[in-house]
Specification:
CATH topology of the largest domain: TIM Barrel
Radius of gyration: 23 Å
Bound molecules: phosphoenolpyruvate, magnesium ion
Oligomer: single chain
CATH architecture of the largest domain: Alpha-Beta Barrel
Length: 537
């Protein structure tokens, strides 16, 4: 990269040629420490490379142990059969994350990429037993809590012991190259960011706003989780509203933070998406603690937890279905967004928030939610006398929403393709279980690549084209974007650009590579059309 940039600065090659010489994936590697290519290593297993970079640390088997290790200043690797939202704080505390199950869009993978934490998932050859606190490698070798391992989230390797790494290399050549790329590209690049830390990374990497802020993670902070659970256990709408009233100021401050960090850039906030039982305890001990905290009989708490279980939660009561059946949750979120908008506007950084409805499959869902959110906006305007604008859009992540995009666009300001769920539902392939057979499927040539990693242009891509065409036929100025994990991959960016999509949104650490890839695609296209390159020295 330095050589290419120097040659362009000296006028030996044009800038667009320098931009063309760097592989976007190699650029991503520069942003994270990597395993020293010369270093000896003992690989014990291979999994799916879910979040790039190398990490060394002592094994811990629980989120609590990871947080304790961090408090003592010790680097650890969080090792879990799979992760759930309860593990997020442990993931934040760990140097790296390793899971036995999962694929590139399973929980561990998505969260780790957002945080920039190296992660390997779907390591089928390992047996992880969190109760016994053991990790069994092929051949029977046992690793225990406190043993050191190294992960390579770039290749998917899991190694015994500490393996030397080389540091991330961000320098002025990188910044210069990125400037040139931005002059050349013609598709927008935003970031998926939920926390202030992620938003800061997004801002530093010059994302042009947030394309997806997943709000549910905000409720896993300890103080909020308790109130969230009270809300879930409320028997009546008024009790639910009382709990939500306590969550409102916390949620408002989340949005104030995001708006302030992004300083006037667009922020697209997705309303609450997961099934409610993700917020409930998983085992008996935690259920007992919860019963105590809520001052309810254990039997009642257990019954409620069981009642909320679903056979197939990803296709169950989540997303807009919660919004329709428990309107007060989205109403609280909308109020928090509007109040934050007013507050940050007063501080001198006007924002036009974008509110996104997840898991839509019918126009009527959007109409119902829009009516209620408009009513909240009117109430907030009345109460405060403030003026503000907002946009309301839909996440296209069910095949039906893609097919019915024409009528959905009539009631939406924008559509954003959630290609994680859209891939899951188009293939009928679970995001969380695909890792079990994905490598066999790719090896047998059934799938050319993991469709959760590289967008399936033939199938999922066709749905995307249908939706884009039908949406724009209804509303020619409809903003279109993609916010699934594939959004950062060069092949996806090329496809989206050709489909007339306005911007891609990907995890913050993938933003530089996406900016570079977008520039390369534009340059290649212009060259093919015989146009002279803009931005050339
Ligand atoms: C998606 O489904 O593509 C998406 C971006 O949302 P999530 O990963 O949170 O389901
Ligand atoms: Mg989704």
């Amino acid at each position: 990269m330095r050589i290419a940039v120097d040659l362009a600065e000296d006028g030996i090659i044009p800038r667009d040629e320098a931009v063309m010489r760097i592989a976007p994936r190699a650029l991503s590697e520069l942003l994270h420490p990597q395993i020293d290519p010369e270093a000896p290593r003992e690989v014990i297993a291979h999994g799916i490379a879910a979040s790039p970079g190398a990490a060394t640390g002592r094994i811990v088997f629980s989120s609590t142990a990871a947080q304790a290790a961090k408090a003592k200043g010790e680097g650890c690797i969080l090792v879990r059969p799979e992760t759930s939202p309860e593990d997020v704080r442990g993931m934040q505390a760990a140097m790296g994350v390793l899971t036995e199950r999962g694929g590139v869009t399973s929980h561990a993978a998505v969260i780790a990429r957002g945080m920039g934490v190296p992660c390997v998932v779907g390591v089928n050859d390992l047996r992880i037993d969190p109760r016994q606190k053991t990790l069994r490698a092929p051949g029977g070798r046992i690793f225990r809590e406190g043993d050191t391992i190294t992960l390579d989230g770039t290749s998917g390797a899991v190694m015994a012991g500490a393996v030397p790494t080389v540091a991330a290399a961000l320098d002025s050549a990188f910044l210069r190259l990125m400037e040139w790329a931005d002059d050349l590209r013609d598709i927008g690049v935003r970031a998926n960011a939920d926390t202030p830390a992620e938003a800061r990374v997004a801002r530093n990497f010059r994302a042009e706003g947030i394309g997806l802020a997943r709000t549910e993670h905000m409720f896993f902070e300890e103080d909020r989780l308790v109130v969230m659970r009270e809300m879930i256990f409320a028997d009546s709408e008024s009790d639910r509203r009382a709990a939500l009233d306590r969550l409102l100021p916390m949620q408002r401050s989340d949005f104030i933070d995001l708006f302030e960090i992004m300083r006037g850039q667009p922020v697209c906030i997705r309303l609450f998406d997961p099934p409610l039982h993700e917020f409930l305890p998983q085992d008996r001990e935690a259920t007992r603690d919860l019963a105590e905290a809520l001052d309810l009989p254990l039997s009642q708490v257990t019954a409620r937890v069981e009642a909320l279980q679903e056979v197939n939660p990803m296709l169950g009561l989540r997303g807009v279905r919660l919004g329709v059946t428990m309107p007060e949750i989205y109403e609280m979120q909308a109020r928090a967004i509007f109040e934050a908008t007013i507050e940050v506007g007063r501080r001198g950084a006007p924002v036009v928030p974008e509110i996104m409805i997840p898991l839509v499959s019918a126009r009527r869902e959007v109409e119902l939610i829009r009516t209620r959110i408009d009513a909240v906006a009117a109430a907030v305007r009345n109460q405060t006398g403030a003026r503000f604008a907002y946009k309301l859009g839909v996440m296209v992540e069910t095949p039906r929403a893609a097919l019915r995009a024409g009528e959905i666009a009539a009631v939406s300001d924008f559509l954003s393709f959630g290609t994680n769920d859209l891939t899951q539902m188009t293939y009928g392939l679970s995001r969380d279980d695909a890792g079990r057979f994905m490598s066999a499927y790719v090896a047998e040539g059934v799938f050319a690549e993991d469709p959760f990693h590289t967008l399936d242009l033939d199938g999922v891509g066709e749905l995307l084209l249908i939706a884009a065409g039908r949406g724009r036929a209804t509303r020619p100025d409809l903003t279109l974007s993609i916010c699934g994990e594939q959004g950062g991959a060069p092949e996806t960016i090329a496809f989206c650009r050709a489909a007339g999509i306005d911007y891609v949104s990907c995890s913050p650490f993938r933003v530089p590579a996406a900016r570079l890839a977008a520039a390369q695609i534009a340059v290649a296209d212009r060259r093919q059309n015989g146009e002279s390159a803009e931005g050339a020295a």
